[in-house]
Structures are given as C-alpha cells and as structure tokens.
Amino acid sequence: MHLFPLKFPLIKPKDDILEILVDTLKRKIVLQNGDVVVITSKILALSENRLIDLNKVRPSKEAKVLAKKYSMSPAFCEVIIRETDKIIGGVPKAILTLKNNILIANGGVDQSNAPRGFVILWPKKVYTWADRIRKYIKQKFKVNVGVIVRDSNCHPLRRGTFGVALAIAGFEGVRDVRKRLDLYGKKFIITQENVADNLASAATLVMGETTEKVPVVVVKNALVRLSNRSSRYLTKQLIVPRKGCLFKDY
What we know:
Elements: E1 2-6, H1 17-28, E2 36-40, H2 41-47, E3 51-53, H3 61-70, H4 74-83, E4 86-91, E5 94-99, E6 102-105, E7 118-120, H5 126-141, E8 146-153, E9 162-169, E10 174-176, E11 192-194, H6 195-207, E12 216-220, H7 231-236
Parallel strand pairs: 2-8
Antiparallel strand pairs: 1-12, 2-12, 3-7, 4-5, 5-6, 8-9, 10-11
Helix pairs in contact: 3-4
C-alpha cells in the first residue's frame, strides 16, 4: 500500500472544492481503478461555508454551565449543544458527544484551522459529498475509486488523535473475516476489519493536524472491494448498535 499526500492552496469559504480537487489530481497523480481518495471533512465544510462567528453566538444557561464545568468558552459550548445529538461527559477543554452515531469530541465543532474567532462544523451533507466526489472523479478520469471523508477522533483510554471515516463511497468499508480460519485452523467468531477507519488513520498520519495543507491523500494498492451501493448504505455498515458495542457499559 502506498500513500500519496497532495498539497492544496489555502481553501476559503465557498470555494468550488470539486474543481480544485480535480485540478490538483490532474497535476499531481495518475488515478487508477481501486485507488482510495481520502479527503478531510474540513475543506468540504469550508466549501459549504460552515463557519460560525463566536462573537455572534448567544450562550444559553446550559452552555454557561458546561463552559464552567469544562473550562471552555460559553459561546463554543453553545455551538456544541446545537450541533450534537447527545452530550455524554467530558474533561477540561473537551466534551464527549454523540453525533451521527459517532462518539466525537465537541460534536465535531473545531476551532483549529478556522479563522480567529470562528469555529468550523462538520459538512452538512457528508454522504452526498462522498457520492458526489466519487461520481465526479469517475466522470473526469474514467476510473472507479473509493472515497473517504475523514476527521480526527479519539479512542477510549488512548492518547492522541486518529482518523475516522465520517462517510465512504465506492467500496466496502468492513472486511468480515468471521468463519475464516486462523493459523491453527480455528474459525474466527467475531472479528471484522474496519477498512475505512484504518485507511482514514493511515491518511491522517501524512495529512497532519497543523499547517501541512495536505487535505487529500490518495491510497494506492489498498486492496479494497469496490461497490456501487450508496454512501449512506456503505457508511452505515461501519456503525455498531449500542447494544452490541464492546464499550457500552464502560
């Protein structure tokens, strides 16, 4: 497997990200069937102008309570409340939330790499973006690729960030090895490999988190299984119902 990071110009709100993406791909890499294009959610959110001016946010009483409890800005906490599906807990400077069936810090609301005084949200139509990017690349380059829209996330009891797939398109995100045999001829019982999140994490290593300006990584020889199913369907395959989650009682 090989990862090819692609540097971009600084993306501004309402930029036509599809045209910028295609132009960059044309100049920097030859796409082939089975490649996986990993794109950070932040530049898609910028294209949607998903920026919030914190100076214009009026915090609620709940936001003020959260701000005091977790040592955060009341305006920032108010945006988190509006964006998240559920607030679970937190530590100083970060609130654990549930959004789109993903445990994520701060409901995906981020102050990093946003203009001063602003926060940036997740893209509104993340499934649509994944499908659009895959179809647009097929139209322009005549190849079938996989697409991952990724963000940074945390793992229970592990330090630091890793990549998580918010949406995928064009390939099966889970490789089921149940009933296959191990080295001693025993059948696997519950093992399934999360291909999408593993690729998102690999791409995150070369994207970086600060001033790298690498919002897209092309993964070659990822050995993914291509699929024409919708992004919504493929992404939902990555989600475990709470009752079947190993961490549900922690």
